[in-house]
Amino acid sequence: MLNEKFLKYVKGWYFIYFGFILMLRAIGPYLLLPTRYDTLLFWPAGIAGVVLIIIDAIIAFREKNLKKYDWLLIAFIGAMLVSSLMNLKYGYSENIKLIMWQLIFFFMIYQFGKDYSSNFFFKVFTWILSLVWFLANLVSLYWFVIQYGIKIPIKYKYYPVRLGWLGNRLFGVYTDPNFGAVISLIVIIIAIYYLVTYKHLN
């Protein structure tokens, strides 16, 4: 159906956009920007993600295809809701945001991969991820070679942003060097996969 194709197209570009802004948050210098820029990027993504989840759920209900959703993930969201209601007196805005982002991760990003498996959008995303991480690692290695390191305090964070080579540890351009290292490994695996696939095609 045309509607299904259009929805796949919209969800595909949302998948790429959401992945890209998450990449930005992993880069240390991005945190130095005023918070309004982060808000401008993430709040529309949050609202659009929830709207797409609702539309997808309505279509699944009409087609009697609710089994496609992972019931353990639904139960997890339910537990979060119950916990939030039980602790309502301590605040609710942060809990709402947390639940919203978990909904997007579970029923938009994960579900997109489950529903459509490998497709054009995954290829675009992997190329963007590989390019961004290659450039970030290149800068990080350059800072290591010249032994550059700096701490920059920011108002809304307890810890300063650490960049470069500090305390005998390479932070590079990443907000979390451990996260940067894990994604770097994933990018290497993706590169090997494409090399092997390319050789088989030829």
TrEMBL record:
Domain of life the protein comes from: Bacteria
Keyword Transmembrane: yes
UniProt keywords, alphabetically: Membrane, Transmembrane, Transmembrane helix
Signal peptide location: none
TM stretches of this protein: 12-33, 39-59, 71-90, 96-112, 124-145, 179-196
Name this protein carries in UniProt: Polymerase
Organism of derivation: Enterococcus faecium (Streptococcus faecium)
Biological classification of the source: Bacteria, Bacillati, Bacillota, Bacilli, Lactobacillales
